[in-house]
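I am sending you the entry underneath: sequence plus fold tokens. Let me know what the token row says about the fold:
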Amino acid sequence: MKKEHLPSKMCLVCNRPFSWRKKWEKVWDEVKYCSEKCKRNKKG
């Protein structure tokens, strides 16, 4: 699959778009943050 055809989402913390990654293949529906840093800095 070409990079421009990968699905993407918006990070809930930094509001930046991020693309699908192979390591998220089985859990893509559960991914909410673009990085571990954003995951640690989530509110509440």
Remarks:
- The radius of gyration is 11 Å.
- The mean pLDDT is 91.
- The chain has one domain: 3-40.
- The helical segments are 36-40.
